[in-house]
Design the sequence.
């Protein structure tokens, strides 16, 4: 899909991505694909775009050596949730 992670999704780029995904994943055209195949191709197209942006963001923060205090809160929340689940069983 987008080679440049900063590219915005447009109607045309989504259509092109879905068409390419249908062709490569299912060997179908938009006219011959089932609704489920079109849905999956759309989901994979969006996933590719989001993954490209996520990867660029991750690399930026990795190179900047930024600390994420929110991550500690998340792990604390998960540990509390885990403890509560253990008490429930």
Sequence:
């Amino acid at each position: 899909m987008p080679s440049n992670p900063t590219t915005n999704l447009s109607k045309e780029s989504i259509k092109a991505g879905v068409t390419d995904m249908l062709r490569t994943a299912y060997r179908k055209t938009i006219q011959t694909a089932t609704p489920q195949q079109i849905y999956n191709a759309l989901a994979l197209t969006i996933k590719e775009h989001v993954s490209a942006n996520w990867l660029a963001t991750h690399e930026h923060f990795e190179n900047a050596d930024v600390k994420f205090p929110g991550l500690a809160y998340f792990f604390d929340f998960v540990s509390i949730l885990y403890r509560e689940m253990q008490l429930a069983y």
In short: The two ends are 46 Å apart (CA to CA).
